[in-house]
Each structure stands twice: as structure tokens, then as C-alpha cells.
Fold:
Amino acid sequence: MEYIISEENAKKRLDVYLLENLDEMTRSYIKKLIDTGKILVNGKIQKSGYYLKKEDHILVEIPNEKQADIIPEKIDLDIVYEDDDIIIVNKEKGMVVHPANGNYTGTMVNSLMYSHKTNLSSINGVIRPGIVHRIDKDTSGILVVAKNDFSHKELSNQFKEHTITRKYIALVKGIIKEDKLDIDLPIGRSNKDRKKMAVTYKNSKRAVTHISVLTRFYNSNVTLIEAILETGRTHQIRVHMSYLGHPLVGDEVYGKKDSKFRVNGQMLHAKVLGFVHPTTKEYVEFESELPLEFEQILEVLENKEK
Structure:
């Protein structure tokens, strides 16, 4: 992976910058990569506390220690669309997108390696072949996978420029009074728990979420919302809604356990994904229905309102 330092990121410590941009890596692991020469700045080894300068070139080499463990597995995927460049997957709740942190089986990547092993982009290596973006394990919905490096780069640029259409449906606790909310609050690693994200103005990035209320369930004290992502930070919707006092139903990381709803994981579904097709250059949009569990809970909530 390569990074060119912008004026915005100049004067940041090397380890801090990498912690912000390498989402799944801990500070200690990043330090290990720096100390062992796996991370170079302008072709040279620098210390973790090196202060970056504009136009600095960072090269990150991720050791492939676990590549042999990433084996193809015959796991059914709900493929919504496929052509020579992209695969659109409707991921089920509970499935991890790619191997990480000792979890090297049962992921979407294991399945793709079985069905599309020779037809996936190589940009992210063996651990994440074809993976342009991801959604959380307990978030269901639409993902795009790149089948070649050209498509991967084209799609990555659109994500970087925030031109991708991403609409989510979520069930949150409490009654939201406003019909619409525009949330513009920066997100970064939590100082209290490095595994969590938080709204913070320190070592963070701008995060913008547009909320529309779909249904208020007064008798159950929950609200069904549509969330449109302008940016795509880790756990963005979950963090923003929790910060506003409306954590997602089922989200025990950013909310509290609630026995009223017997669900495992947050009630969040990536419903719509739209982008300019890498080859045709035409705007395409894909949509998936809410999973059965989500629909059943909404039906119960609607009956309680009668």
C-alpha cells in the first residue's frame, strides 16, 4: 500500500497517520512494522515518532504470514449481479467480509476464492482479493467486489472522492423528533478503547451522515431511519447515532444490551449502492431487500402501533 502525504496530514506523527488509515491494525502492530522496516518513508526507515511532511511517500508492506491459511471454501453467496469487471454481493448478517485477527475461515473472501479465485483484483493481496470496501459482520446488504485491478482502482477513486451512493436502513432506539438530520461530526479511534471508534476532534477524519426518519414506533420507543453516507468512516452510522443518544437496536458495542429485541448484532442493512461502472462509465445502482429478521421485527412493531 502506498500513501502520498497531503498538506492536511503534514506534521502528523507517522504512527498516528497510519493508525488512522490502516483501520484494522493496532498501534503495537504498526510499530512492529515500522521497527522491522516494513514501512518506509521516501524509501527510508523512520521512527514511529517521525513527523510527516507534505509529499512524503509512505510504502507499507504487510507480511503475508497467514496467506497459506486463507483457503477456498464452498459457501453460498447471494450474487445480485456480475459481469467481467464487478460482482455485486448481498451479504448476509453474521458473515465477515475478509479474514482478519485470527478469523481465517467462513468469510466472504473464502467463498470468493472458491468461486472466483482467478477473477479477483490483486491490489489488496491474498487476504482481501477484490475487496474494495466492506461492511461490518452484523450488517447485511450490498457490496461491490472488483474482478480486476483496473476496476478496483476506478471504484476506489470513487469511494475516495465520496461520489458513491450508499443508503442504509437502520432501527434505532428512542424517538427522533426531527424528520431529517445532517450529522457532520469527525470520527477517530476512541481514546478509551482502541478497538472502538468515537466522535472526537483529535486524530480524526470528517464524517457526514444524512438521516431521514421513515417510521416512528412510539409504543416501542424506536425509530426506523434511512442513513445516507457522504463519507465512509469505520462504524460511521453506529457511532453517529450512538453519539446522538439513538444507538442502533442490537448494537452492544455502541449501545447497551436490550432484552426487548432478541437480535444478535446491530439492526443495520446496506440497502442501496450506486456508482459509475468502471468500464461502461454509466451510473449503475443496486438494491437489496431487508433480511427476513429485519422484516419480522418491523411487522411486530407495526402491530403494536395498531
